[in-house]
Every structure is written in C-alpha cells, then in structure tokens.
Amino acid sequence: MKKLIYLDNAATTQVSKEVVDEMLPYFTEEYGNASSVYEFGSKNKGAIEKAREVIGKALGSKANEIYFTAGGSESDNWAIKATADAYKEKGNHIITSKIEHHAVLHTCEYLEEQGFEVTYLDVDENGIIKLEELKKAIRPTTILISIMFANNEIGTIEPMKEIGELANQNNILFHTDAVQAFGQVPINVDEYHIDMLSASAHKLNGPKGIGFLYIRTGVKIRSYVHGGAQERKRRAGTENVPGIVGMSKAVEIAVSTIEERAKKETELRDYLINRVLKEVPYTRLNGHRTKRLPNNVNFSFQFVEGESLLIMLDMEGICGSSGSACTSGSLDPSHVLLAIGLPHEIAHGSLRLSLSEQTSKEDIDFVIETIKKIVEKLRNMSPLYEDYIKNNN
Amino acid sequence: MKKLIYLDNAATTQVSKEVVDEMLPYFTEEYGNASSVYEFGSKNKGAIEKAREVIGKALGSKANEIYFTAGGSESDNWAIKATADAYKEKGNHIITSKIEHHAVLHTCEYLEEQGFEVTYLDVDENGIIKLEELKKAIRPTTILISIMFANNEIGTIEPMKEIGELANQNNILFHTDAVQAFGQVPINVDEYHIDMLSASAHKLNGPKGIGFLYIRTGVKIRSYVHGGAQERKRRAGTENVPGIVGMSKAVEIAVSTIEERAKKETELRDYLINRVLKEVPYTRLNGHRTKRLPNNVNFSFQFVEGESLLIMLDMEGICGSSGSACTSGSLDPSHVLLAIGLPHEIAHGSLRLSLSEQTSKEDIDFVIETIKKIVEKLRNMSPLYEDYIKNNN
Amino acid sequence: MYSEKVMDHFQNPRNAGELENANGVGTVGNAKCGDIMRIYFDIDDDQIIKDVRFKTFGCGAAVATSSMATELVKGKTIYEALEVTNKAVMEALDGLPPVKVHCSLLAEEAIHAALWDYAEKKGIVIEGLEKPKNDIHEEEEEEEY
Amino acid sequence: MYSEKVMDHFQNPRNAGELENANGVGTVGNAKCGDIMRIYFDIDDDQIIKDVRFKTFGCGAAVATSSMATELVKGKTIYEALEVTNKAVMEALDGLPPVKVHCSLLAEEAIHAALWDYAEKKGIVIEGLEKPKNDIHEEEEEEEY
Ligand SMILES: Cc1ncc(COP(=O)(O)O)c(C=O)c1O
Ligand SMILES: Cc1ncc(COP(=O)(O)O)c(C=O)c1O
C-alpha cells in the first residue's frame, strides 16, 4: 500500500482495535433487545449502563445525565431545538458565536425562521469570543448560550469557565459543542457550569454514528427523536449497543491517555507550526497560538488555493483538509476563517492538519518538505502571486 | 451456554456474519472521512453510493432518493415533522392510524401541541385500517397520510396499494413506516404510490443505529438534523460508513432470500399458530390470519399476565416479548391490542413471538410444550381464572 | 431487572393457591392496571393467621410481592399483620424496580382487604384498619430529570 | 471526484506559466469565489494563436480547465478560439462534477478576455466577441430534490 500520513483526525479517526474488539460480540452474540424482559437482553442493558458511567465519570457528571445519540450533529440539534421548545415561555433569545459548527449554526438559523432571535457573537483574530460582547448580548429573554468548547477548524479553545459563570449568574442555560474537545482536553461540567454538552465518538477513535448529549439534572428539555421509551423516554430508537459499547471503550482509553497524548501531540504540533512559519514565506497560522487543541494546525498559504493544495498533498499520501470537512463540495470559503478576519483569497488557501497519537516526527518532516514544494509550485502558477511580486519589486 | 430460542426478531435481530465482515474494514482500515478531498476517503464515498443503489433497487427507487439516518425512529420523525414544516402553508392536517409505532404516534402528538390536527384512524379487529374512514378523513388541508406497512406487534399488513392510490388521487403525500415490512415482504414504492418510507437495518440482520428514509423526487421536505452538507444537504452528520455498508449487505441478502424465507417462516408460523390455538384453551390470535408478516405470531392467553409469562418463558431459554418492545418498562397495555378491541385484561396477557430464518421446527415444538405448561401454571395462580371457572360451572 | 429474591419468589411462589376454609378473603387491583391480587386467610380464635394463600394475575413483581406478603403475615396476629407495610414487603425482597413499587402497595392492600372481610364476617372492628380501596394505582409519573 | 483526464491536467498542467511577449492577456474570476484565471496569448499576424500560457489560482478543476483550454486554442485562429466553449472544455476533460462546472465557464471567459485585450491593443473588432465580465459566478443553486 502507498504510504499514508493521515492528518485529518479532526474530521474523523481510526477506530482503535480495542474498541472494535469490545464491539464485536454485540453484533453476533449479544444482539438481544436491551429494552426487553428476557435475560438475554440484560447483558446489553448492563453494557449500556456501564457506558453511561464511564462517560459520566469522564465529565464529572452523573451516569443518568448522559443520553446516547447518533452523533455530534444530533446532539447539537437536540440541545438547541429542545431548549427553544421547552423554554419558549421564558424567552426567545439565543446567543451563539460566528464560528460554531454548522450543526449549531444551521440549527440556530432554522430557529430564526421559527421566530427565535439569535445573536451570533464575533470573535477576535485568534477565534476567541469576546466576553464583553457576550455580556452585552444577554437579555431578559435569553434562554440559551451555546458556545463550542474548541473550534473544529482552527482549534481555538474558548473561555469555557468565564462563559459558564456568566450563563450561571444570569440564570441562562449553557450548552457547549465539545465534539472536538472531548477526549482531548479535560472537561468537568461543574467547573465550567455546563448544562448540556455534545460529543461524538468517531472523533476519539470510537465508531461513527454514535455520540451523546450530557443534560444536567433539572434541565427540562424533552425528546428530539420521539418514539419508544428508551433513554428514560428522552431519546427513542432501539439502542445501538455496539456503538455505545465502542464509544465507552474509546472514552475510557482517551481519558486514561489524555495527558501523555496532549504532551506528545503538542510538541509535534509546535514543531510543525514553527518550521512551516519559518520556512514557507507568506504563511499565517490560524487560531490561537497556545489556547488550541493539542492536535490542531491550521495554516493559510497566501496566493494558493486550498483544494489544489489538498489534492497535491494527497498525491504524496498526505490527508489533510481545508475549511470544515462537512462543507467540502461547497464553494464558500470557511465561515470561521472569515470570522477571524481573513480576506477571501486567504481564507480560500487554508489547510488544516490534525494529528493523532500515531503521527511521528518523520511524518511531520515529510509533510513540511512536501508543503514547501507544493506551495512553491502552486505559487508559480498563481496570478495572485505574480501580481504581488510585480507590485512589490 | 444455555439453550436459547430467540423469538424476538421483530424487536431486533442477530447481525449476520457476512454483514459484520463487510463492515469490519471500515472501522480500522477505511476510516477516512467520506466527505473529503483525498483519495483515502473515496472508497468510503464509493461504498456509500453503492449502498444507496442496492437499497434503491430493493425499493424500485432511484439511488439518490435514499437518505441514511440513525434508524427507524429518526426516519419517522424526519418524514412527519419535516413534511409538517414544509407543507404547513398548504394545510395542517395529518392522517395516521391508532396502531402506529410510537415513533409515529408520539411525533404526531408532538405536532398536535404545535397546532397541527391529526386524525388517528380506527382499525378493525384484525388491525386493518378502514379505508372508508380514511376517505372520510381526508380534508382539503390534509398534507400527509402516514400508515405503517405492517404492524410491529400483531404483524398485520395494511392495504398499501389502496392507501397509496387514495393519497395519490387526493394529492396528499403518503409516508409509510416499513420498519417491520422492509426485507420481509416485497415493496415497490411506485406500485404503492409511496412518497416516503422509513426502514431500520437492525430489523433485517443489519447493525443497530442505522436506517434510511426514502424520499421521492419532488417531495420538498428539508433537513431534520441540521448541520453539515452530507446526504445532499438533507441529513447532517459524519457518514456512518460501517453502518451504511452493513445495512447495504443486509438488504442485499434479505432481498435475495425473501421468497424462501417467507415460505419457510410462514409454514412454521402457521404450525405454531394452529397448534397453540388448538392445544391451549382460551387463547386468541391477534392480527390478521393471513395478511400478516411471515415471521409474526401474537397470542393473547386469557387470565394470564404477559410479563409473568415472558419471565417464565425466559427461564426456559425462550425470548419473546409482550406489547411493543420499546414500551417495556411501561405499565400500559399495548395501544395496538386495545385498538383491535381487546379488553384490558386480555391485552395484558399478550405474547409476541417473532421467528427468524434460524428458527427450527424443534424450537417451535419446544416452545409449544413450554407455553402449555406455563399458561397452565399461571392460570392456576390466577384469580381471574378462578372466577371464570366458578361462574361457568 | 429483578433481585434474586424476587425471582425466587416468582419462580417458587410460597402459599400460592386457594384456601377452601378461608374466613377472610380480599381481592384488590383491577385488570386495567394489569394486576389483581387475592389473599385468603384462615384466622383462628386467637386472631392468629394460621394459614394463608394467594392468587395473583400480574407481573413478576406482583407474584413475588404476594408470595412474600403471605410469608410475612403467616403465624402473625391480625394486628401484627396490619403492620406489614409495602415497605416491609419490598425490603424483604431486596427491593423492587421503581415502576413496580405499586405492586407492593397492592400486596399491603390485599392483606387489609382480607382482614376487612374477616372483620365483617366476624362482626368485629379491627382498630387502625380502614376500608380498603380495591383500586391501587399510582399514576405513573413523568420522570423527573 | 475528478476524472483521470482532469487529474492528469491538474498534475501536469500544459502551458502553465507566463508569456513574456504576450499581445493579449485576460484575467477573470475573483478571490471571493476562490478562482482567478489569467491567460496569455501570443497571436501572430495571421491571427493565429502561436503560443499560450496560463496562471490560475483555484481548485483542481480550475487548473485543469485552464490547462485544457490552452491546449484547445493553441494553433487556432482567433475566430476558432472564440468557438471553444466551456462545454468543449468539459467534454475534453471527460466531464466535471456539477459543483465545478463554473470553472469551465471561467476558462471560456478567460479566453474571451485575452482576445478582447488583444483586439483592444490592435484596435480591431473581433466579430461575435462581447466584452467579458470578469466575474463569472453562478449562484450555487438550492439542490432540486
Ligand atoms: C414499526 C416500527 N417503527 C419504528 C421502529 C423504530 O425503529 P428503531 O428502533 O430502529 O429506531 C420500530 C422498531 O422498534 C418498529 O417496529
Ligand atoms: C465541532 C463539531 N460539532 C459537530 C460535529 C458533528 O459531529 P458528527 O459529524 O458526528 O455529527 C463536528 C464534526 O463533524 C464538529 O467538529
């Protein structure tokens, strides 16, 4: 097989072998219905409850505050729409940011069509929301603040504690999309006053199609997927036991290795950032220099377009992404890069490389050399570069 | 291991080995993001498109009319709520039946809270909806008819063709919850004028947590899970590739074996029905005698309560269910059995046994003998039986 | 779902069946809720429950609570039997799932109903015994989150 | 996502670079849409395109369509070049994904822009050539279901 350097772990990850092994019996052996009377379903039921405990422990929450969903998008939709529904008597105003994932943004836009009012907070050049603006945005009718824990494109970690305190002081529910952060940075829902938290297993070496929503006891939101009585009547659908068990194992591993992974990845990340910034001219690092996910790197190479860059990297066996993975196929430049103030042509030339535990220094060295070659090649073909050089000589 | 006779295939099924084998590479090898630029994601993309074709073919639809979801419940929620949303200018009236799965019923009840009007059609003693009543229920404001293809508790198959024609003549969208029927009876969406169809993989030896919604070209419903641009912007969330691939394989197998399975299961089913009706007094078959799913049997044993029966069967290694699997844990008797006219105490004493290809005649013989013993034991403990005997002697 | 004790009493119910010479019989519950319990007492002249039987239409917990309730009152005086609460029954069974607590209330009520029947037949008043409702059905509550 | 032809032209773009002695240069597209194409023509006295180069800032399809467009016009008269449509470019590339069709329009427009520049410099009128818009951007349409 061709050499493969997979640096798109922010999009999705390899399921680890231990996770698959944990899942396997639940496909062909322990397949009974978890919501049944018979004994044959009870091992499934037990496995689900154990998963709830593992995840609850990872967040410093109670097990029964964890509700399983089909992934991050469903969790975001659920948290936001069900809050709107449950608290509409109290108010119709929601605060979020301009750099949220589309699962939050499009959900908020949908709610706007339904008559809700949404404030989309600006961020600074590093992608950090402005707390002063947040304070000012709060109204008596504000029912929800939804700010992501860490951004999926530029890796910036938001000031959770400050946001949580503001929400708490003002008696407003606080939801965070922690799809990128969960398993990568330690999270305690009490410390940050988080009332709801979305996560997705496939971002942390778990399977695709399974995630959860943490809902603090006392938050009165109800079902988003209506139907059967599963998940204490809050989320219908036959329990995806292999998925739940796989996620639980993935969380267990992620939590137990979180420090050493962060250390290793941060080192490599910084090595990659430093060398590229030094060795490739007209390059910008997007996102905060230090308040960022250990595995996230995001560059803009001026005069170069992102897709071309990606394809050329791919030809060398390097998998990266440009903008948000979910919108590829779209012609729009990343809303996140525009929000941190990049002009369009620079926003179009961004590259996200997201590392994993498996990434080696050799990989990174190869990536750096390859980037240098490709960026040069593309610049030589770029009319923007030509103009720039002519105008500055 | 203890002998196990699994007769709860209407709740969920064993994932077949071929299906697991098909899924496995997508966990640890082909894990790249399907919505990516790099080559490493393209096999995933290809697998998804192939799955869409396999399923489209199974339904006589186009591949691009198949949208992947997390299962039957999400599909039902999506079809009904998004239709309500998209067609609310046209009208606010929905027609469904009293014997739908909770994924449909609770969704309709939710819509009633939002100002929609819902007619819940009666069914006859066999669980078949009354077409005359349906005709009368149609109003100029009716935007959707949602009637299940086959009932999950009593196995009755509804008159799809007639319903579809009525819907079509009146220019009303027709959704069917085919979670029980798909893979068990042949379905052609054009023949039945079906506009939307829900299905779930784990009912046909596929994995849990994956399903689909068929949406006919021209039906203008939009997203239910908002977010990324997956599924032609209609269903957000990183594609659950292993799940999709597994479902595709399961559908492929189900379609290619549908006739022989139906033949085998129908024979066993009828053998079970005939012997039990003959050999256990005061017993009733619920659901239509012939218009029923090949694998569904549902009895009511008078004077006997269902849960006790189930636990005793379980002690003999027989897995069955009572009422709808999803509502176990609830104290209410089945809404389906009440709708076909059973009095409460008889509705409480129902037993669903749902066969699979694996079920053998020996299994069924053992089940029959066991039922006879248990029912007798429970009747001897039953005050209702005592009263009945005293009053009739 | 059920404790071992519950399963034991369900599989091997103590005192199941009818009592021919019962002098106190009480039936509670109704078919709508899915549980009916009937308790038969043979109470001697010293007001001691010499023998007891039950019949129950209901779930595993209903059978087990009936069985346990009969065990707890057997050999007791009627006043001691009156003190056997649903809590005592539950504790003796090592607990019940929350949705099944009503079964234990039903068992308590069945004892009371049989005692009431006895008292009526004897023309006596058992102090502290109220006329039992025959319909014990806690409304299933919306779960608290 | 892309055909082999597209990938080939992307990896080995024909006629990439600048043309020192160009007598017709056209630039179209804008950074907002993420595509800018520039085409350089060396047109001889017989109005034959003797040489051609391009520079492109854009996606894989943008590079490939530029490359193919230069191939298609090289050695042609300016009137023949005028007939090279986006469709011809797409066909020569064995097709483009729907979201990338606008790249081929851009290539057509870049040819027109370079011809326009040539005509202006020469003071001639090329019949059938309209002043090119430099902003070709089809509105991304709502998908039709
Ligand atoms: C008729 C019917 N509809 C919907 C569902 C829900 O499917 P799922 O549990 O896969 O969400 C089921 C099964 O539980 C069913 O039998
Ligand atoms: C921040 C963020 N939120 C939500 C999601 C959606 O998660 P999923 O694709 O599992 O639905 C993603 C990943 O795609 C993400 O990065």
From TrEMBL, chains A, B:
[2Fe-2S] cluster binds at residue 326. PROSITE patterns: AA_TRANSFER_CLASS_5 (PS00595). Pyridoxal 5'-phosphate binds at residues 72-73, 152, 180, 200-202, 238. GO terms for molecular function: 2 iron, 2 sulfur cluster binding; cysteine desulfurase activity; metal ion binding; pyridoxal phosphate binding. Gene3D superfamilies: 1.10.260.50, Aspartate Aminotransferase, domain 1, Type I PLP-dependent aspartate aminotransferase-like (Major domain). GO terms for cellular component: L-cysteine desulfurase complex. It is found in: Cytoplasm. Keywords: 2Fe-2S, Cytoplasm, Iron, Iron-sulfur, Metal-binding, Pyridoxal phosphate, Transferase. Pathway: Cofactor biosynthesis; iron-sulfur cluster biosynthesis. The modification N6-(pyridoxal phosphate)lysine is found at residue 203. Its main location: cytoplasm. Residues 5-365 form the Aminotransferase class V domain. GO terms for biological process: [2Fe-2S] cluster assembly; amino acid metabolic process. Pfam families: Aminotran_5. Its cofactor is pyridoxal 5'-phosphate. The keyword Chloroplast does not apply. It is an enzyme of class 2 (transferase). Its EC number is 2.8.1.7. SUPFAM superfamilies: PLP-dependent transferases. Homodimer. Forms a heterotetramer with IscU, interacts with other sulfur acceptors. Master enzyme that delivers sulfur to a number of partners involved in Fe-S cluster assembly, tRNA modification or cofactor biosynthesis. Catalyzes the removal of elemental sulfur atoms from cysteine to produce alanine. Functions as a sulfur delivery protein for Fe-S cluster synthesis onto IscU, an Fe-S scaffold assembly protein, as well as other S acceptor proteins. Belongs to the class-V pyridoxal-phosphate-dependent aminotransferase family. NifS/IscS subfamily. HAMAP family: Cys_desulf_IscS. This is Cysteine desulfurase IscS. It comes from Anaerosacchariphilus polymeriproducens.
From TrEMBL, chains C, D:
It comes from the Bacteria. One of its GO terms (molecular function) is iron-sulfur cluster binding. Residues 1-122 form the NIF system FeS cluster assembly NifU N-terminal domain. GO terms for biological process: iron-sulfur cluster assembly. Pfam families: NifU_N. InterPro entries: NIF_FeS_clus_asmbl_NifU-like, NIF_FeS_clus_asmbl_NifU_N. This is Fe-S cluster assembly scaffold protein NifU. It comes from Anaerosacchariphilus polymeriproducens.
